[in-house]
Automatic annotation (TrEMBL):
Stretches assigned to the Methyltransferase domain: 101-234
Gene3D superfamilies (UniProt xref): Vaccinia Virus protein VP39
Descriptive protein name: Methyltransferase
Keywords, ordered alphabetically: Methyltransferase, Transferase
One example GO MF annotation: methyltransferase activity
KW Transmembrane (keyword) present: no
GO biological process, one term: methylation
């Protein structure tokens, strides 16, 4: 794949729409709603429940505006990435105590590593936890493996499990309690350098993925799966490549948070729950704006799930009490208010469903920039879909090698 051409095309496509994806809809309401093309909103308003569900999947039904059809079609084309095919099946004993998600990820990571790492003899896993990946790699490939994690309690559990299981990889696996950070770390830095060394980071949170790449400049192989892009900071963490610097986008904190929403595989139950959570949060925002305009944007915060499943008055009372606010309204008045703003809260929902169409593209932009950085460092790079997004939504893997 020509990463530079793909990044240039995506940034060129996304830049004119930045007012829609770089700002918070709720915090800027109602002006943020007015920024959306009227024909897009009119089409969204025409959708029934099934149509809303399809829009959440990125599928347009009915007679959508040509501009929306063209945009979503091009976004889909530019975010299409190859899949890694293959599974390294694990035995029942190897997966004992692992979740279905963890098992799924490990089976695909091992299958990806096998044909690409024949020249590797040592490896380091960042955020290795109990060392499941390290244990399996040591056993499968015969590597000397160092599992790094700052949580010593997790590592103690892993060490006890390893001893108890009498794994054949026990002699080639070691646990190191440490945080992987930018800057010199004489204790662990040598583990990241050497043509026969691999560095692995699965779901490295926020800027930790970039730290892994920087420390791995002298490694022979790098595998990284990022997550928690909302913990990044721009421009510190984007763009990071020289080419990306010539094709910037306005990655605000709101835009970075949006990159984590690129999930098009919600079940019917998950979608219905999302709609209910949004309905109460949006109605509460309109209530607080009406009753307490001097406070500006009021953060409702996450409420217990049971409150979203109940009546709006119970949810609103709980949030108001937490914030130390008294609206001077009865429960009946709170319920009536929620009914009165339903058309507006639905518009808020529809704007969010439309805005979510940009999420995957923004995530891919971040990873293309990282792929280009790895190329600038001399690696041969792949950007692959590795995990089933229904199990592991952050499923994009950067694979970089210097060859044998």
């Amino acid at each position: 794949m020509d990463f530079q051409a793909r990044l240039a095309a995506l940034t060129q496509l996304l830049r004119p729409w930045a007012p829609l994806w770089s700002r918070s809809i709720l915090q800027g309401w109602p002006e943020s709603g007015a920024a959306w093309p009227e024909d897009w909103l009119a089409h969204a308003r025409s959708l029934d429940e099934a149509g809303e569900r399809q829009l959440d999947h990125g599928v347009l039904v009915g007679a959508p505006p040509p501009s929306l059809v063209a945009l979503l079609g091009t976004l889909q084309e530019l975010t299409a990435l190859p899949w890694h095919e293959g599974v390294h099946a694990l035995t029942v004993s190897e997966t004992q105590g692992l979740s279905a998600k963890k098992t799924h990820e490990l089976e695909r990571v091992l299958a990806l590593l096998a044909p690409r790492t024949r020249f590797i003899h040592q490896a380091v896993d960042i955020g290795g936890g109990m060392g499941h990946l390290a244990r399996l790699c040591a056993r499968t490939f015969g590597w000397t493996f160092h599992s790094i994690d700052r949580d010593g309690a997790l590592q103690d559990k892993g060490q006890r499990w390893l001893t108890k299981s009498r794994s054949s990889g026990a002699g080639t696996l070691s646990f190191i309690q440490a945080s992987v950070e930018d800057g010199l770390q004489p204790r662990i830095d040598p583990l990241f350098s050497g043509g026969d060394r691999a560095t692995i980071g699965l779901h490295t949170c926020g800027p930790l993925a970039l730290t892994q790449i920087r420390k791995s400049q002298g490694a022979g192989f790098v595998l990284n799966v990022g997550c928690c892009y909302d913990k990044l900071e721009a421009p510190r963490d984007f763009p990071v490549s020289r080419f990306g610097g010539a094709h910037p986008l306005p990655f605000t904190p709101h835009a970075l948070a949006l990159t984590t929403r690129g999930r098009h595989h919600k079940t019917d139950v998950e979608f219905a729950r999302m709609k209910q959570v949004y309905a109460w949060r949006f109605a509460f925002h309109l209530l607080s704006r009406q009753r307490f305009p001097e406070l500006g944007f009021v953060r409702a915060g996450d409420a217990p799930r049971a409150l979203y499943a109940g009546r709006f008055a119970a949810y609103a009372r709980d949030r108001l009490e937490r914030l130390g606010l008294e609206p001077g309204m009865t429960d009946s008045a709170l319920e009536s208010f929620e009914v009165s703003v339903r058309a507006e809260t639905r518009d808020l929902l529809l704007c969010h469903l439309l805005r979510d169409r940009f999420a995957r593209a923004l995530e891919v932009v971040l990873l293309l920039d990282r792929a280009i950085l790895l190329e600038e460092l001399g690696f041969q790079v792949e950007l692959l879909q590795l995990f089933d997004p229904r199990l592991s939504p952050r499923n994009l893997a950067l694979v970089a090698s210097r060859g044998a």
